[in-house]
From TrEMBL:
Lineage: Bacteria, Pseudomonadati, Pseudomonadota, Alphaproteobacteria, Hyphomicrobiales
Organism: Shinella oryzae
UniProt EC number: 1.-.-.-
Domain of life per record: Bacteria
Keywords: Oxidoreductase, Plasmid
Oxidoreductase listed as a keyword: yes
Molecular function terms from GO: oxidoreductase activity
Protein name: SDR family oxidoreductase
Length: 241
């Protein structure tokens, strides 16, 4: 799909990878719909970028998502690409994960992308096609201790994304999965529970920039490839270090 002139909706656009993807897509000539809960931030970004609509939206809330899709349609008439990027981590051992936290992590990282896809699909079908990128994580390539809640949610997202791709292929709707690795964002400061481990600190010595991930996400939209990863080979990915 061509980025130039397209309408791209990005969830979790108020920081990190989402904000970087908004910048990159804007520079490539897209018009944007920015979603997040921190409205002042996305409103500011939208003002800086121009050609962008900012909407407060908790993506775990079906009603708020429905309103966001309707407003995007009313404003632009279409949504060519959806980037399901909003996410949150949790660091705890299997024994210590609070069940309510586990449910919240699933709700945001796995259920919300389904809510978003279900909400945008009728519009994409009516307009004759579209592109969806689900942002998962390279941690799904290995059973990292203390990643149980987040890793399970993202592993579920990988399969949800693959099934959606298979189901929608003949409708002109292309679903892809992006698997970033450690990226320098607010992610580790915004954990649902727990805190950075020694391993995180070591990983952080080679953290990617959010701009690098953003470029790969836009490449996925352009190519329609099934997935892309920024995971070093020694962690099971395809990235030569
Ligand atoms: N950073 C990494 O090392 C890394 C590695 C692999 C994958 N990822 C994935 O990359 C994606 C982006 O993460 P990031 O690293 O850019 O982290 P980040 O800077 O913490 O950004 C997370 C974004 O998600 C949004 N968000 C959280 N809960 C939300 C909700 N209920 N409704 C709407 N938006 C919500 C936040 O906005 P508000 O708080 O304003 O709502 C924020 O914009 C996530 O899916 C993450 O799992 C990150």
């Amino acid at each position: 799909m061509n980025i130039e002139g397209s309408i791209i909706m990005i969830t979790g656009a108020s920081s990190g990878i989402g904000a970087a993807t908004a910048r990159a897509a804007s520079q490539a000539g897209a018009r944007l719909v920015l979603l997040a809960r921190r409205e002042e931030r996305i409103a500011k970004y939208a003002g800086e970028l121009g050609n962008a609509l900012a909407m407060r939206c908790d993506v775990t809330d079906k009603d708020q998502v429905a309103v966001a899709i309707r407003r995007a349609e009313d404003t632009y008439g279409r949504v060519d690409a959806l980037i399901n990027n909003a996410g949150q981590g949790l660091e705890a051992s299997i024994e210590d994960i609070e069940i309510d936290d586990f449910k919240d992590i699933l709700a945001l990282n796995l259920v919300a992308p389904l809510i978003m896809m279900q909400a945008v699909l009728p519009l994409m079908r009516a307009q004759g096609g579209g592109s969806i990128v689900n942002v998962s994580s390279g941690v799904t390539f290995y059973p990292r201790p203390h990643s149980g809640a987040y890793n399970s949610a993202k592993a579920g997202l990988n399969m949800l994304s693959s099934v959606a791709r298979a189901e929608l292929a003949d409708q002109g709707i292309v679903v892809s999965t992006m698997l970033p690795f450690v990226t320098a964002t607010e992610f580790n400061d915004a954990l649902k529970a727990g805190s950075k481990t020694q391993e995180d600190e070591e990983d952080a010595t080679f953290a990617h920039t959010p701009d690098r991930v953003a470029d790969r996400i836009l490449d996925l939209i352009r190519s329609g490839d099934e997935q892309a990863d920024l995971v070093p080979r020694r962690f099971g990915g395809s990235l030569e270090e």
